[in-house]
Amino acid sequence: MNILEVNEVKKAFGKQIILDGVNFHVPEHTVFGFLGQNGAGKTTTMKIILGLLQADQGSVMVNGEKVTYGQTDTNRFIGYLPDVPEYYGYMKPSEYLALCGEITGMKKNECKQKTQELLNLVGLEKANKKIAGFSRGMKQRLGIAQALLNDPKLLICDEPTSALDPIGRKEILDILYRVKEKTTVVFSTHILSDADRICDNIALIHQGKIQMQGDLATIKANHMKEGLEIEFAKIEDLKRFQDEMNDLSNICKVKEDNPLTIELKGSNMNKLPKDSLQILAKNEIVPVKFMRLEPTLEDLFLEIVKE
Which residues lie below 8 Å from residue 17, measured CB to CB, with a gap of 6+? Predict the structure, then answer.
């Protein structure tokens, strides 16, 4: 079942078209990456999904119910984390979640139990201090806990890793990947490597249209590069390998960003790995890395942008 369906959504501000017939769907219990450059229309789409912004045309379905602008009925299925969450800084995290539970009508005992469970999930169980003293990453983690308080069927996060350091980004991504067992995660980002790491499905928006969408593994398989990448421990090993491989009419190109790594291309991908391994074995060369070339989301995105 699809927990979210966006159908032919259009939106313009004045003469500027932001969304031009956007279509995508999100299966249950997946991590879905909504990708695009800054200003591509990701936040506009999310506001339409939440009923906070009226689409000029099209429809949105959440858990089988139609989203209506200005009404919040479908938001009972949704937990939402904005890109810059705001809090009452004088509160501690447990106090803030207790307030959120009270506002939504949760019973005190239920809220207390759920609060402890969620603080453990996001790694804030020992953060017994005022939110004003939290780092950006800690605030994002608290925002995820708050968004999960009502056991939503759909968790929407708008740029959850923006402006975080590498450790903070990893922590947030790990949390989002874990919670897909309980809910469905949709997160927007322009950091394509983040989506590459945890997403099951993606939709890539550019110039107001969805240019690519679907299962990430299938997308990569359909755009698989015909070649290998081999990294060597010593430059001498690389040169010996390269000389013999060129004799077999294959193309070896040293990567500009790593002089110990080559990209290897040939006309027969069934034969190329076998030839490579035979040369490595004959010369007693143990490579640091031996892998088939696989496109990254950044590679695919750049192809789309350049078209």
Answer: 10, 11, 208
Pair of tokens at residue 241: 């390998």
pLDDT at 90: 95
CATH 3.40.50.300 corresponds to the domain 2-222: yes
Global pTM reads: 0.83
pLDDT of residue 81: 93
Please state which CATH number belongs to domain 228-306.
Answer: 3.30.70
Determine the 3-state secondary structure of 82 from DSSP.
coil
Bridge partners of 282?
Answer: none
Q: Are strands 258-265 and 251-255 parallel, antiparallel or unpaired?
A: antiparallel
Containing 154, the helix (H) or strand (E) segment is: strand 154-158
pLDDT at 48: 96
Torsion of Cα atoms, 251 then 252 then 257 then 259, to 10°: -160
Per DSSP, the chain holds a count of helices (H) and strands (E) of 10, 14
Longest dimension (CA), the chain: 75
Helix (H) or strand (E) holding 44: helix 42-49
**Cross-strand bridge partners of residue 21:** none
Pairing type for strands 2-13 and 57-62 reads antiparallel
Residue among 156, 301, 294 at smallest CA distance from 217: 294
Task: Return the domain boundaries, the chain.
Answer: 2-222, 228-306
Q: Point out the residues of the chain with pLDDT beneath 50.
A: none
- Residue-level pLDDT at 292: 83
Amino acid at 287: P
Which of helix, strand or coil describes residue 193?
A: helix
Report the C-alpha gap between 241 and 227 in whole angstroms: 16
Please tell me the distance from the alpha carbon of residue 293 to that of residue 297, in angstroms, as a whole number: 13
Integer Cα distance of 286 and 156 in angstroms: 46
DSSP state of 133: G
